[in-house]
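Re: Re: token formats

Sure, here are both.
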Amino acid sequence: MAWAEVFTQSYVVGFILLFFRFGALFIATPIFSHKSIPNSIKAAMAFFFTIVFYSSMPPLDIPITIPSIFIAILSELLFGLVIGVILQVAFNVITFAGGLISFMMGFSLASAIDPQSGVSMPIISQFLSLMALMVLFSIDMHHWILIFISDSLSTIPLGGFIMQENLFNYIIYATAQMFLVGFMIAFPIVALTFLQDIIFGMLMKTMPQFNLLVIGFPIKIGVAFVVLIATFASTMLILKMQMLDAFNYLEMFF
């Protein structure tokens, strides 16, 4: 690419569209969308990666007019948001499972502000979410996202993203899978909690002096923590497989 071409209209518009593609991605995807990262840092990261990937940007294939540029910017924002929604749905398997576990342990009122989403959620969900972020860093998922954007430049031209019906179908499918897989992750604790409730109910019938609040709840919480620790590795493995499935679908769609 000659230096004279860098400042032509098509390449300037292409730079702006590429910046919006990265910016929308950093707003919506896990890891990059973390609320503890200031928006100014996200914008600076989007600008930096735009410069890095600018040399691999294909020639712009849209007319250089204000309406077409505006539509192209909306298309790039939509592209980043769709990617973010698909990855966030796969990631929210952990938070949904944590909510079920917190409810069964009696921690549903023990909530805190989640630094990932900025909303209040049960403390077990927050713990699993933070551990899941560490796992995503360990498997280099932030690199996967950047590589995916690099590959998308050759398959989806700048300003040329269009929502397809299969994307809507996959988002519906992924949302259903989020509830199903989340319940599967929480099932050992849910099942043991139901079993303990049955046992405690039988004990209270046979021994009325049995104090459920003093004895039963600490036992329930202790058993749930033991099961949570025992199943932690498999839970993170399920999360990894969910994220891999999401990336496989992204490659198929795009």
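Second one below.
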Amino acid sequence: MKLRVGKTLLAAAVGLAMALPAVADTIKLGVAGPHSGDLASYGIPTKKAAEIVVAKINAAGGINGKQVELVVEDDVCKPEVATNTATKLVSAGVKVVLGHICSGATKAALPIYNNAGVVVMSPSATNPALTQSGEYPNFFRTIAADDAQARTEVDFALNVLGVKKIAVIHDKGDYGKGLAEFAQTFIKESGKGEVVLFEGVTPGAVDYSAIVQKIKRNRADAVIFGGYHPEASKIVTQMRKKRMKIPFISDDGVKDDTFIKVAGKYAEGVYATGPKDNSANPLSKEAIEAHKATYKEDHGAFYENAYSAALALTNAIKVAGSTDDFDALKKALQTSDVNTPVGKIHFDKIGDAVGVGFAMYQVQNGKYVEVK
């Protein structure tokens, strides 16, 4: 699907899509994620991706003659809020959801959607069990799972940086702890390195000096951190202030410009995994240009994955004929290739996108740059 709308028309169409009133004869697309709070920088790009994709579709006549209506709910990336978010979307008659963003929130919401026969696709929830456990046949994602991400981090630490003693730290959440556990396993299995410290920290704490001292006391050559930017920025800042110059390696929960803004000069040199660079993909360029033209700002974290998810979901609706038949939607996602900013994709039998993966990035001169 390649729909082109002029920049001025696109901005107007996005405004129309956002203001589209609830009409019985529309196709409802739910969008769930953090649109406020500390992790809003992860959720707002997905909301904007959905707005742009839907605006293009509606400007071209909609799907099978029907306009697409966005139904947006904020879950603040908290599991206890996400269940309420899911209930609201189900009550609104939504049968297809783009989101959630955080793994913990996604896990909490999925049973509600599954019971209601709602298809859910996340651009960012990387916890492996979300697809690999078999509990959520309604779940799909356009990003690779944490086992692949942890493997990338460990291989980079051991084989590229050549470190031996690694402190593995996490934020105790489904996402951060799960990733850290995979990293710990891969380090032990490698025969090349040693986990000298494995410990969780409390999210939202002001002072992380205790964990910083443990890292130093255990003489770690590097840190692998599983979690999000608020904790990572504080830990790396306190490490650098203590003159600890060892590599700090993290995940796509930290590969975000907000981390660089918060950590400031202490972000320099930090490594983080993230989705592969798609800048050579014409659809990626087109999607990013549409965002800049519409919102007059950079696109932010997971935008391309979210844009791809919106394309995949709307294509599945078109192929299935409506949102009413769960089995038809699922079959369409698994059998119909879709050209997206992250590549030409479809989904395997457990819901993972075929053809996506991770790359390593480093903060250089205030920007994340892919490490070749």
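The chain has two domains: 7-143+279-356, 147-251. The longest strand covers residues 27-33.
- S.
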